[in-house]
Design goal:
290 residues, mainly beta, 4% helix
Length: 290
Amino acid sequence: MSQLSPATETVTQSRKVERLITGVPTSDGAGVRLTRVLTHELQQRLDPFLMLDAFGSDKPDDYIAGFPDHPHRGFETITYMLAGRMLHRDSAGHEGLLESGGVQWMTAGRGVIHSEIPQQEEGRMEGFQLWLNLPAKDKMSTPWYRDFKADELPRVRTAEGADVTVIAGASHGVAGAVTRDDTAPVYLDIHLPAGASFAQALPAGHNAFVYVYEGSVQLGDTTVPKQRMAILDNAAGADGVRLQANEAARLLLVAGQPLREPIAQYGPFVMNTQEEIYQALRDFRDGTLA
């Protein structure tokens, strides 16, 4: 249940929309249909975030095969399930059932092989997977995993009527489920009734974006419609973001401290140099990745 927060976020100058992004339809895993919202081309601009996939379908053929065993190294995955059930198993011995409203946070670190398989044969499967980079010093860290049930996630209701799930960071005096020192991510799921406003303070150095998945919102002079990402500018003097719902709306607000390190990626491996990528491929081939 959301707690009513007496705290408010003071934003004297809001960031504006730098540009709107339309996601790219694609498939991953064993043919799961999804939309890639944050693509490879945006990794430097939205550092420390590497990828955002949105998936949502009530057609089992779009998701039923799931994501069989596959490797990761060098970053973190955050899966947020709006609807449906997905079973996670990995080579580090972790297992968890991700259900509606829950979050799975996995640090791949030096390497993990995992599977994500739907536990339903019909109904809607909807959610997001966000990839968060690790700093060079932590890329070979020990893998870590945590499942958060829906009722374990901190929530807050603002005086303006916004219902906010605080997955990471903090909002209106409520700390999120996860914190990270180097990337300092903010990850909020915000539900707004028509006409309601919302303000969130953001550190000046953070890269940030909004993704609207229901309804539409107004951010300054820009309307952000459903299924669009709004990259927020990094204008000097801006200390946060203010937005208003044109209609009942649901959106993600994501921000983080950039690492400003080289990014070398080959599929599920994200390191700092090509030699480290070659090593990841050798380790996977030789069975020593995880």
